[in-house]
Amino acid sequence: MKRSGLPVFVQLDGRPVILVGTGASAEAKRRLLERAGAVIVGEADDARLAIVACGDPEPVVTRLRDRAILVNVADRPDLCDFTLPGIVEREPVTVAIGTGGASAGLAAALRQRLEAVLPASLGELAAALKRNRAAIRERWPDAGERRRAIGAGLAGPLDPLRDPPEGAVERWLAAPDAEHAGLVRIALRSADPDDLTLREARLLAQADRVTHRTDVPPAILTRARADAERIACDAPPTNLPGLTVDLEMAG
After folding, report:
1. What DSSP character marks residue 194?
2. Which of 45, 90, 177, 233 has a CA positioned 20 to 30 A from the CA of residue 16?
3. pTM for the full model?
4. Which residue from 176, 46, 30, 188 is spatially nearest to 38, judged by alpha carbons?
């Protein structure tokens, strides 16, 4: 089974990208590259990335790959080394939607839904968090505690799906600490991750580690942070630092 790949954001400002092709598809790619600040060059020029939008792409792809250039081919996911996602922008926030080349239409539909859901103020929230980065580090010097505090803030007064009032980040910083550590036990009602409550999903996203019984399905465990430790055990260890979420199947 072909894997979907690792999503990354590449800084293209001032960097060369090869564009091969003419017509509407090539012009759409040109606009996308120009918006990212790339310097668009031809096939013979030096670059690390190339986008091909022409009627007979195979020979072009072969020549480019012989030069160790990563290639994207319009409407030909089988020839792509990387794909271009659907994009929702709330400067400086960028949300990218990819389907591994399975369906550009599905990515477009998801982008339209997200455009309607994400408020225009999302970028302002990101900018406020950046402005207060030093104060946040001072308030929560420990990285794990800081991550949990930010997660709790974004799940409450700084909810990114709402328009936060002016000064919301500063008021959140000045508020008393909430409890963000300890052991939380969750009895799973089913093996379907879509049955997790919003609170349970947030706890998994904030946990430093997840302890679980062996019958807890991988689909549930993948809802935890990628860098959270997973421990299969009959009972969770005690007195662990940070936030531990313990999972077991109910019944």
Report:
1. G
2. 90
3. 0.70
4. 30
